[in-house]
Structure formats: C-alpha cells, structure tokens
Amino acid sequence: MSGPIAFSLLGRDENTKARRGRLVLPHGTVETPVFMAVGTRGAVKALTIDQVHATGTEVVLGNTYHLALRPGAEVVRAAGGLHRFTGWTRNMLTDSGGFQVWSLATRGGRGGGDMAPPEVSEKGVRFRSHYDGSLLDLSPEKSIEIQNALGADVIMAFDECAPHPSPKEAVAAAVARTSLWAARSRGAHQRREEQALFGIVQGGVFLDLRDESATALRKVGFDGYAVGGLSVGEGPEQMARVLDHTCPRLPEEQPRYLMGVGTPIDICEAVSRGIDMFDCVLPTRNARNAQVFTWSGEQLKLRNARFREDFSPLDPLCSCATCKGGFTRAYLRHLFSVEEVTALTLATIHNLTFYQDFMGKMREALLQGQFASFLEKWRHLCRNGDSSPRETGDD
Fold this sequence. Notes:
By secondary structure, the protein is of the alpha/beta class. It has 2 domains: 280 residues, Queuine tRNA-ribosyltransferase-like (TIM Barrel); 95 residues, no CATH class. Strands 4-5-6-10-11-12-13-14 form an 8-stranded parallel β-barrel, surrounded by 4 helices. Strands 1-2-3 form a 3-stranded antiparallel beta sheet. A 3-stranded antiparallel beta sheet has the order 7-8-9. Helix 10 packs antiparallel against helix 15 and helix 13 crosses helix 14. The two termini are 32 Å apart. About 1% of the residues have low confidence.
C-alpha cells in the first residue's frame, strides 16, 4: 500500500516465525522488533524529551482519548502537531481512544464513585469523561479527525475491545462493530500521505472471531495490523494460542503490532510468533513503583531492606545513565523511602534503557541466527527469576 510507510523484512528465524525488519516512517527509520514507550498525555512520565531520546527509544505513544480532553486536539493542531507540541522529533503513534473509553470512562471522575457504562451503538460510543463526568461522544470519524489533528506518524482505527472474560455473543458483537468502524475509520482518514493507519484485530480468545476480524480488516486494507484485546487477563497460554492462530492470517509484507504487551518474556514469545511492534506501561509504571528490570531476569524491588547498604549499580550489565552514573541500589532505595521525585526519573531511565537494549540484543540474535537460543535463555530466566505481572492501560 502506498503512503507514509515502508516495511521490509531483513531476515527470518529458521526455528520460529520471528522476523527482523525495518520500518520507515516520516520521522525516521525504526528497526523491528521494536518497543515503543508509552507517553499517554504527550509525555513519558518522569522524563524529559532528551532523557527519553538517550534511552534509545525511537517511537513514543500518545492517546487520543486523553489528548482530546486535555489540552484538546485544536490546541495541539495550533502548536503544529504533537511533534512540535512535545518537542519529540522521532516517530509517534496515537491509539484510537477506544480502549480508554471502556477502561476509564466507567471509573469515578473528580466527584468520585463509579459512572454508568458507555452507551455503544453502530454510530459510536457515548460516555462520561473520567476527569469531570461531562458527557462525550466518540465515533470512528471523530477519532480519526482528532488523530489527524494530533499528527502522529501512525494512527489507529477506532475499535471495540470487549472485556475479558466476556460471553462469545458479546465478543462477536464487538468484532462486528470493529469491522464496521474500521471501514469508516479508513474512509475518514484525511492525511493518508502523512500518517499510516493501522487496523486492530479483535475477537478475544475465540479463534473463529479472530478469523472474522482479520478477514474484514484485510478487505478494508490498512498500512499495518495490530492485535488488540490481549494482555487483559487471559493468561500467557491463551495469548500464545491466539497469536499462533492470528499472525499467519495477517499480511506477511506489513508490520504487526501487539498492543499493550508486555514483560520481556511476553515480548520474546510474541516475536517468536511473528509480531514486530510492542508497547506497554510496565517499564515506566514499575519504575515509579521502585521496581527495576535486570539482565538476570530478576525484577528488583528497591524498597526492600536488603538494599539499604547495597552500593552496587542497579545492574552491572546495564548501559543506562543511572547505572553508569554511579547511582547505587542503596541510594535509589533512600530516594524512594523519602519520596524524592528524582527516584522516579533514575528508575525510569534504567527500565526504558533496559527495554531498548533488550530489543537491540533480540534483533542482533535474529540477524545472527541465534534467536532460538535467546528465547530459551529468557524462558529459563523467567522461570527462575522474579518476572513482573502483566499490565495494560495508560501511563
């Protein structure tokens, strides 16, 4: 498909379905598999733009729901788009806002208490803002209009993510709406030469519904394809089963994006099944909760008393500015214990750098024909280490 995207496969693993690729977007070349940092409201929490850049991050995510509410799409448009508004000069992706409607709009706003669930129809969704309870409408056309105004390099079609678990009938209805909304999202897209548009495959854990969704999206035609509705409580075995079934049904020559995933081992397993792109709040959210990833597979919980007099770096194998700058486990434990905001920055720098270095080593293993060994090593480390729980959502 012509447009603002070029994707090429540089290599494949002989023992799995893993792919090594290159994605060319308006704000630069992205090597895949790639991990994209979550910056829901136009910022990666606790970091400046220069600090995000120094972690090796190539793509930052913003979210349509949040940015449309605050500061508003027209404010961002007036600033010259998200890149100029935030100062980020590399590539950006915006989610459609659909997931946030279901995950946030039923939470209490500033007045407290739960709100009524969103009203869903073929037209779109009517819901109340989780900020102030005001009544809002979001449709495929409105979501794309907002994303056109925001100006990210990759934008997402409006979709419905059924919660897990849901009856098959409810998931089937969500798939039907997602297919309808996908076509309308495509038709509403006004900046096709500047912004790549990805469709989102839904269907929960029901393989026949995943077939239906993938088939419908391919008929519409997109610049890339995402797999949504996973990492929402279904468990790693079910995720693997869905990816094993779904990835072969997506175009081989286009990028595949698994939304909201995940831990290092989740990423490894998904890459082995043919996924190219990832995002997740884990490295940044866990950092703010004093939990850091290491090359041993263990996730250090820095508030633990055992780190009080541990004057070693977070990870002696890490290349980040925190580890190379002489900041010790004992020092970060102290910062967290006294609620010093510097702790959030130092831990976030470490975790994001770890994730980017992890992806770099994975890409190197793919080019050298050693991905199977890399995968088995991390399976072993995560069986014996302290791997973190899976999380999804906004950061």
